[in-house]
Amino acid sequence: MVDKRVRQTRIYEKVVDEIKALIASGSLRQGEPVPPERQLMEDLGVSRSSLREAFRVLELLGLIESIPGKGRFVRRGRGEDGGASDPRKLEDGAILELMEARRVLDPAIAAEAARKARSGDLTRLRRVLSATEGSMAVPKDRAQADFDFHLVLTEATQNFVFVNIVKMTFNLIMATHDRIYSLLSDKDAFLHEHQEIYEAILNHDGEGAARSSSRHIERIYRTLQEALALEGR
Predict the structure, then answer these.
(1) For residues 191-215, b (16+ Cβ closer than 10 Å) or e, as one string?
(2) Which of 108, 166, 188, 213 holds its CA 20 to 30 A away from the CA of 101?
(3) Are residues 68 and 138 in the same domain?
């Protein structure tokens, strides 16, 4: 069974969704201050740590910004007139930037995992792959299976910096999972590529793991890039 801590409901995701809904509805307008932390904690019934985690995700998505000495504000549009822009477009730009970062990081992480993976890491990866086969129909389940695989893989590096980078990366992915995975209809390729990465790690083949990981993220990046370009026409 997959480690329970990987499967826990992330409260901050609900906060992200609530604030995104307020922005989308116009209750929070671009350029306006975000309500104080204490007020949001009471209104949403969450802890300060969950709220601040949500703020980090929203900032990385480009939906809010922190101004030193003034507080947090709903981010203004990026157009020349400074007017409102579609929050979905901000998310789409963030999605591609996120995948660009993964094109650099994922192969290095996979190579390090191949060199350092212990028997327990390999067992956990195998369990995630087995569970993934039954988690492909629903986008959120598929996103969670993707998170599970890459987090367990990264924990095999025994490097806490890599682990925290991947957690932050997938926090963003989970916050927009419906958008990302609706554009990816590559279920068979998804399973095959994860299996290929696993086998390279099983054989402690660092170069092979890096190549497989690079092919995997490159295909995902190109698929998303093409799909978003078609939508923008």
Answers:
(1) eebbebbbebbeeebbebbbbbbbe
(2) 188
(3) no
pLDDT along the chain (233 residues), means of 10: 46 83 86 91 89 84 84 69 46 83 96 97 94 80 90 95 88 78 81 95 98 96 89 68
CATH number at residue 28: 1.10.10.10
Same domain, 104 and 18: no
pLDDT of residue 123: 96
Tell me the residue length of the chain: 233
Same domain, 106 and 185: yes
In a domain, residue 5? The reply is no
Same domain, yes or no, for 69 and 92? no
At residue 202, the pLDDT reads 97
- Structural domain span for residue 56: 11-74
Burial class for 219, CB neighbours closer than 10 Å (0-12, 13-18, 19+): middle
Q: Is residue 81 assigned to a domain?
A: no
Among candidates 11, 27, 42, 14, which has minimal Cα distance to 74? 27
pTM: 0.69
Q: Residue written as tokens 């067992």?
A: 123
